[in-house]
Amino acid sequence: MEMRRNYIREKKILCGDSYMAVCLYSITPQEHKARGKKRKESSTDQKSRNKMSSLRKKQRKAIANFDKYGFFLTGTFEEAFLPDDILACKREVVNYKRRVVAAACKRFGVSRDKIRLMLWAVRKGESGRLHMHGFVECAGLSQNDRREFREMLEDLWRRRIPGTNEYEPLGTMNADRIDMKKLLGNDGTTQGKHGTVGYIYGHKERICVESKNLKLPVEQPPNDTKWSRKQLHTACGDMQNDAYWWGTRFPGWTLEKCVVYDPEELHQSDQRREDGWEVTEPQCYVILSRKGQP
Q: For 237-286, where are the alpha helices, taking DSSP H only?
């Protein structure tokens, strides 16, 4: 029997209890045989692909750890406290993370593992000002406690005045409730298809600072037999934004967004075969939410 010339791989990644990402792309028979082995990245457009892969991973990590009860932070610096470079900005972000954890534990009596943070020291463009963006959430707080926590987040963007027990603000800190549509990138705003994390990745310089208790998305074993080439074309074409259709493909889940990539943007095959159609096939990246989530 002749070996199949093509396989469509379905790779599912569970992002906490509420979300799941699904990657759909064609692979070569050689990749199908060697599934599970580490793939060596081609050097062609490597930086761009690596950046987009890192962006998707960070977005999956964000939706696995933060929801509508968390806050999106934007912290700026007054001229007197503006860091000299991105590493100095990172130190301010690290110190801010430490202050937030200590203050929340003391005020609300929660353990450190209840406080999750994903922060970035960033600079927009070569001559842009250094500042901070990020997500934070403290589990188990009441509505009144969350209101107080929000005020605390804005107040802790500060520095002690040397030789005193007084503090002065580093600049302005805004703590806004997380909008999951913006985080997922399906709110129709200028943040684009990659949402809030995509906006952060639009900064020329960025360093991420995370708490150690963040949950990691869990990649499931790939399935190379569920999808046909025709079904892949349907997913990337007429049914791209059809929530009912995706619900039949993944019972118990609701479509949040579907992004169609040009060939090799989502995945690039190790083995390049001139007679293989997989090099020219579209690729699909889907995010779904679990039905019935609050």
A: 243-249
| Among the listed residues 6, 8, 78, 22, the one whose alpha carbon sits nearest the alpha carbon of residue 250 | 22
The phi, psi pair for 263, rounded to 5°, reads -50, 130
Compute and round to an integer the Cα radius of gyration of the chain.
22
Pairing of strands 71-75, 173-177: antiparallel
Give the contacts of 72 (CB within 8 A, at least 6 positions apart): 133, 134, 135, 175, 176, 177, 178, 179, 183, 196
Tokens (6 digits) for 88: 């100095």
Q: For residue 275, give every residue at least 6 positions away whose Cβ sits within 8 Å of its Cβ, in sequence order, or none.
A: 5
**Average of per-residue pLDDT values in the chain:** 88
The structure's pTM equals: 0.87
3-state helix, strand, coil in the chain (%, to 5): 35, 30, 40
> Inter-axis angle of helices 86-108 and 143-155, to 10 degrees?
140
Q: Are the C-beta atoms of residues 243 and 255 closer than 8 Å to each other?
A: yes
- 77-132, pLDDT tens digit by residue? 999 999 999 999 999 999 999 999 999 999 999 999 999 999 999 998 888 999 99
**Which tokens is 212 given?**
């150690």
Residue of 239, 247, 240, 255 lying closest to 289 (CA atoms): 255
Rounded to the nearest angstrom, the gap between the alpha carbon of residue 111 and the centroid of all alpha carbons in its chain is: 25
Sign of CA dihedral 42, 47, 52, 55: positive
Question: Distance between CA 70 and CA 72 in Å, rounded?
Answer: 7
Residue 85: other Cβ atoms inside 10 A: 11
- CB distance 27 to 7 below 8 Å: yes
Which among 37, 15, 12, 18 is positioned nearest to 285, based on CA atoms? 12
Burial-class residue 292 by CB neighbours within 10 Å (0-12, 13-18, 19+).
exposed
